[in-house]
Specification:
Radius of gyration: 20 Å
Helix content: 40-55%
Largest sheet: 5 strands, antiparallel
Length: 312
Amino acid sequence: MRGPLFYSKILLFGEYGIIKDSKGLSIPYNFYKGALKIDESKTVATHGSNQSLKRFTDYLAQLQAENPNLVTFDIAALQQDVDKGLYFDSSIPQGYGVGSSGALVAAIYDKYAFDKITVLENLTREKLLQLKGIFSEMESFFHGKSSGLDPLNSYLSLPILINSQDNIEPAGIPSQTENGKGAVFLLDSGSTGETAPMVQIFMENMKQEGFRNMLKDQFVKHTDACVEDFLQGNVKSLFGNIKQLSKVVLDNFKPMIPKQFHALWKKGIETNTYYLKLCGSGGGGYMLGFTEDIDKARKALKDYNLEVVYNF
């Protein structure tokens, strides 16, 4: 058995902000992908994934018992496949902010959910929100609290525009410019990050009025402007807003930026060669970079691995 492929995602804009109703923009990233498979010989390599799926199956059984109106699965078939050696064969790095658990959730829903909403039907806003709600509950097994956006992106394989928590829609993003000098890139921090502790720090900070005001007056404002600029192809304005956003994150989200990157982050802002922002919850994994000249950025970041994900 080999299931269909599900891709990783990149949240270009909106990390943390979407918890507080900022706009967000998420795109599929087809470089990394995963599929459900059965390893009949149950080798050591697939054991970890299989055990995790065993625990996930118990969680899903409990979820549908508690909330049968939300979603139901063919639990018997899932348990049978897990016993046979079901695992998620994935090239998506875990703890890197590119949606490894999201792709797995999408794959399980696609194969085992009853009455599933399919990609082929007319995806009304209600259906999208219903899917997001289902995925949010499913992915909470991995993160403690999930927005459901990563699995939604992986399941639909479409860019998704988040206008607010209860207003999401598929988005058309400007097509890439071949040989464009401007680029969005991933910068490898060389370590993994864990979502739950980072979200916990954020929630603690939210108890302070100053932090809440900063989020509303600066972080959400610049995030929303970046989303608008990106969708409309206003590259000049976009880079102005990304620079502001990068500054706000450096000043207010330090625990989410690995220590060894604080100076590098600041240097980008000071030289205007590149601007860094969080990719996912931070704490490790990838950071997202934006540059108007990828050659200059490569030179400035020559000691690091860059992966271009979009060209302007």
